[in-house]
Write a structure and sequence with these properties.
This protein is of the alpha/beta class. The protein contains six helices and 17 strands.
């Protein structure tokens, strides 16, 4: 994408989606845009079948972006070695060895599909901090994690809420990609908050430009959060968000027929927060949160990917 007139920042376009659950773009769904980076926030599959992973790779190849960053989600349990052993052993007893091998493959087979697609710009990220130099000349630091809280704990990359999880987000990170939301932001479902307080605390301390996720399909949307200063010792959404200066960019309740019609041509929801924009992001003081779950509700089964323009540091 075209760089802005700046010696330190480069305008960068990100296409964000999540929760495709083994489906590919339909004829009327594929985004008609180019991006510098595409991001998939997990739940690549519905049941972790190899054919669903292949479908996800085809979907990613169909996106016009030179770099495509991907994480797993709880439905992608064959990428979690401990859960793979347990669930596949149970499946073998019920279905037989050959049927399970055909459906799920060996532990490394799903990962190998993404390894073989690296030439298409597809990068499967494990949990941790990562660094990229983009084709547009920008530097992008990323923290990625597929882990979500769950009381059941019988799917991939899940932890007991009471035990928590260590999200070791480094200072100065630009982008956080997780499968699930932080507590208090685009996470309300079944009359409760489903997000993780430990994730919220880690993001509040790191203050990235962007945090994208999915998992909670009913809370598709984006919110610009203004942080309180200074941060509290144990950050929470009750204490560390300046609610008067924070706002929703968009959410499902705001997607009327007129807005949906405007999105029809490019097949994504666009928002820009660069220098000169009405709501230019202030790094270190604001974070844009995006829930990009594609699988939707009964009323709207398909939800739009997000197209986000932000400024990133120029690579040295």
């Amino acid at each position: 994408m075209e760089a802005i007139e700046s010696t330190t920042l480069i305008r960068t376009r990100l296409l964000i989606l999540s929760d495709t659950h083994g489906k590919e773009f339909g004829a009327d769904d594929k985004p008609r845009v180019n991006a510098d980076v595409a991001i998939h926030c997990g739940d690549l599959t519905e049941s972790s079948f190899l054919e669903e992973y292949r479908a996800c790779v085809r979907l990613l190849k169909d996106i016009n972006a030179p770099l495509k960053l991907v994480i797993a989600g709880n439905h992608d349990f064959t990428m979690d070695p401990d859960v793979y052993e347990t669930e596949v052993a149970n499946a073998r007893q019920a279905l037989g060895h050959e049927a399970v091998k055909t459906g799920f493959g060996d532990y490394s087979e799903a990962r190998q599909l993404f390894e073989e697609a690296k030439g298409e710009g597809i990068v499967l990220l494990d949990q941790g901090n990562h660094q990229f130099i983009l084709e547009n000349g920008a530097s992008l630091t990323v923290y990625a994690s597929p882990w979500t809280p769950s009381l059941a704990g019988n799917m991939g990359f899940q932890y007991r809420p009471a035990r928590g999880h260590n999200f070791a987000i480094q200072k100065g990170v630009d982008l956080v990609i997780t499968h699930g939301p932080p507590e208090g932001i685009l996470d309300y479902v079944d009359r409760k908050r489903a997000g993780c307080p430990h994730l919220f605390a880690a993001v509040a301390q790191a203050r990235p430009r962007l945090h994208c996720f999915g998992h909670i399909h009913e809370r598709w949307g984006a919110k610009m959060v203004k942080w309180q200063d200074p941060p509290t010792e144990m950050p929470s959404y009750w204490t560390d968000i300046d609610n008067d200066e924070s706002f929703f960019v968009q959410r499902l309740s705001g997607l009327n027929s007129e807005i949906r019609e405007k999105c029809r041509h490019e097949r994504c929801y666009k928002t820009s927060h660069c220098t000169g924009d009405t709501n230019a992001l202030e790094p270190g003081r604001q974070t844009l949160f995006v829930n990009a779950a594609i699988q939707g509700t009964e009323e709207h089964p398909y939800q739009l990917p997000w197209l986000v323009d932000l400024e990133l540091p120029r690579a040295e």
